[in-house]
Batch of 2 targets.
Target 1
Amino acid sequence: TTMMYTTNTGITWNSTTIPDRFGFLHFFDSSQGIAFGPLRRYFTSDGGVSWNVGGDTTDRIASGSDYAVQGNQNIWMVSPVSIIGTDIGFIAKSTDGGKNWVYQDSMSYMLFGVDFIDSLTGFAVGGGHFNNNGYLYSTIDGGLHWKITTFNATGDLIDVAFLDSIHGWIISENTIYRTTNGGISWEVQNTIPGINFEKVFISKNDHFGYIIGSYPGRKKHILLVADLNIPLHRDIDHVKEPVLDVLNNYPNPFNSSTTINYSIKTAGRVQIQVTSILGEVIATLINESKSPGEYQTVWNGKSDQGQYVGSGVYFIKFSNFNTIRSIKIQYLK
């Protein structure tokens, strides 16, 4: 199988031969990556030029239908099938970058999508083989315990994705659901009859959402694009004023620590996170209620796990109930 890769943001592309059909591909940094084939996991340490097979196979844990990655070590995998039977799904987790896996639930409903807001809070979605219900799984402890909720939808839930700790989306066969309170409640945002939704993807850095779907028979596909920079909470008569007035940091680039300055116009809960270029949360610096005023916080180049990150480009992301903004920073060791 041939895989294309680029080293200049897509201007030109090179090809390399890979040993399997990759269903999911993720890079932890510019060199280290993992790929999932039908039977095995593969690893690269040279930016994807070459791949080596891992030691595990589906004899122990099958490959999944979807994956969620947090940091450089934690990966969750869900599937609608398992080695136990075709009507039973599973949730599995790796804490060493995909080299070893353990079941968190080896006999779940059939699960198709998973996403984690941070290393503790996550959601998985799916359906039941013998009924027409959708099911929402949620956890607040990294998957040690999962709460199962019967979702008010007709048919399976296909995928789930979050922009931040507040705003998230679920898709079923032809319906888009939205939460604006971290998954506590969900509402129908749109329904498009005759379309089969297949995947929802949220770009956390530029705040755009994408939904891929197809018409019956998969002879024609559709791509929905949403600009999530538009405030999500609107009143009939007016749109709330932006909460954030200033967001900057100094120095930039930096090699030890950088100070983030921000000022808030309106009281409310504030979240400031460091994310990778892929939108993964590296560190949460602020997650608390703030009064109007000017503030500072410092990032020292460490992840939430206390480990120094590699040199590269990262983003400082500010989010509140109606404001989301990011700035690009560069860390030099």
Target 2
Amino acid sequence: MIIPRTKHHALWAKKSQSKPWGMNPPDPLFFFKIKKKEGGELGGGSPPPKVLIFIFPIHKHQGSMLIMAIILIVLLGTVGLVISNMYISGSNTAVQNSTGGKAFDGSEAAALIALKQMITNDCHPSAIPGATTAGNVTTLTQNVDSLGTYTVTITGTNPTGWNIQAINAGSVPRSPIRNITCTPGSAHSVTPIIGGTGLSIGNNVTMNGSTIANTSGGTNDLVTTTAGTYPATAMTFPTLPTFQVSNNAQGNSSAATINPGQWNKLTGSGMTLNNSTGSIFYITEISIGNNTTLTLKPGNYYIDKINLGNNAKLLINPTGEVRLYIKTEFKFGNNNEINKDGLPENLKIFLYDYGKFELANTCNFSGLVIAPGTHTEVKFGNSNNNYFKGAVACGGTVDINNNLSFTYTDASLTAMANEGVSVTYSGSSSSGTIQINTWQEPLN
């Protein structure tokens, strides 16, 4: 029978008087009580062995060692648990720091990309392709390789005082880069509006959302961008093909569908010019009445003059490039819609010298106007609802009345350059600089 030790003595029993293991008996945690079997025998019929009983004292402090051992085990376990949690927390922090660092680097890269685009867009963010502007706030999206997509917000006024911030979806935004100065350079290939011998801009004229300062009767090669109006040092225009006058072989017509040929005067309440690949229209005059639609198929048209009535529409169907060579005039009525929902690059109007292009009131126009001659005239009406999307390059005079909303894109400027239009002027920003004053560093 094993009885737990509760007092200050214990028993150690051996079946022999000798000590074969050659050492003093250990200090037991239990003592043994040996009960002799009835009949004087121990273990069956064998004679009772000699039993040597050792009695030795137990030190008084040994009872507390077990408690101390248990406490030590608990402490070691607690420390191990704390170290384990610290390791896990450290690993999570490292991952968060890595992710946060990438977001920070990406936001800075996105902001710098946008600033570089400002340099190439006349120091005005609203001219950056894909940007939207409301008041003095411009917003655009930048994709940064391997770092994600960022929303870039630019606030301020031209040419100084810009602030820029880039935010990645789901991440903590970095502080804005403040106090940025954009300085235009000295050369540019194409601008949205070019006036050779005269350029006038009325009140409340906006370009890509930015108000353009009015210019009264400016002369001697001026160009207008979102940053303002500047004198040009050189202009280049394409040489137009010789205008081919109609011989009027097909005479007059008011039919709904007109096929290519030599026509005198086309009139009607609605008309489709049924052009085809390789075919050309030669027309002396097109006159479309009020509330009518003129539909053009892609192709080339040589027309002496076009007059559209009020509330008339000009459509391109199917989608493609229409090239109108106008000798005398292209005159619109009020409330006209000219390629309203089409790309500006799909409607190119070439105006010969002494020719006139006149947009009336409350019109919506999408196209490119190229007028190389020094005696050409391009005029925009006076209305709160006049919209022009595209670009104008005129060797003569450009007269923009009040309240015009003008919009252009890189695609329109590229199309103008492809036609042979180019300009050099003192206010361009193609070789300009961005100065980040908070960093005291230029961005070239």
